[in-house]
Design a protein that fits this description.
heterodimer; A: about 110 residues; mainly beta; six-stranded mixed β-sheet; five-stranded antiparallel β-sheet; B: about 120 residues; seven-stranded mixed β-sheet; four-stranded antiparallel β-sheet; globular
Chain lengths: ~110, ~120
């Protein structure tokens, strides 16, 4: 099945650094969601984006819906140890009648104290 | 306000047995989605259900897998005659109907980790 390309696949950063990750697709999406998943748990919704160009923040997290509607970006400022986890993007295709999402492959974030 | 509930959290089955995974959506949510996750991979959509209706099952294998969301009670994902390749984490998500809230935001349960021996 189709998947989004998410990069980087993994990253090690120092506590206090800013983090950037992105998702790209060959398809146009109506909605982008960003999730964080801790080991052994389900994904937790961080940010939802609904319009091309939209920039939305949630605390230290900021996400943007790309102008082309084929990409999205997530930034984490001043990272802390609890930011460790896997971050997934999810895009909803321009298909009426269904709220099915395609998930990215994930960015594994490790923070060094 | 309880979140999405899934049980069991862990399930071990021998090859050929049946696995039943349950999901209770968040209060007020009438849309349920099932996803499958293999280790080190993203989530793969399986099926989208509303009460008593399957809306989209394009991600569901054609054989051995079925899902339902009855008028009363939890949604059930059923896997018959399990094989080793069915071992994975299965997640349920829910969202409200359009008139009850924002149907685009899906909230996930903790998952059921199925191991087939």
């Amino acid at each position: 099945g189709q998947q989004l390309n998410q990069s980087p696949q993994s990253m090690f950063i120092q506590e206090g650094e800013d983090v950037s990750m992105n998702c790209t697709s060959s398809s146009i999406f109506n909605t982008w969601l960003w999730y964080k998943q801790d080991p052994g748990e389900g994904p937790v919704l961080l940010i939802a984006l609904y319009k091309a160009g939209e920039l939305t923040s949630n605390g230290r997290l900021t996400a943007q819906f790309g102008i082309t509607r084929k990409d999205s970006f997530l930034n984490i400022s001043a990272s802390i140890p609890s930011d460790v986890g896997i971050y997934f993007c999810a895009g909803q295709e321009n298909t009426s009648g269904t709220y099915k999402y395609i998930f990215g492959t994930g960015t594994r974030l490790k923070v060094l104290a | 306000n309880a979140g999405v509930m899934q049980n069991p959290r862990h399930l071990v089955r021998r090859r050929g047995q049946e696995a039943r995974l349950r999901c209770s959506p968040m209060k007020g949510h009438s849309h349920v989605y099932w996803y499958r996750q293999l280790p080190e991979e993203g989530l793969k959509f399986m099926v989208y259900l509303q009460k008593e209706n399957i809306i989209d099952e394009s991600g569901m294998p054609k054989e051995r897998f079925s899902a339902e969301f009855p008028k009363e009670g939890p949604s059930i994902l059923r896997i018959q005659q399990v094989v080793r390749g069915d071992s994975a984490a299965y997640f349920c998500a829910s969202s409200p109907a359009r008139l009850a809230g924002n149907p685009y935001e899906q909230y996930f349960g903790p998952g059921t980790r199925l191991t087939v021996t």
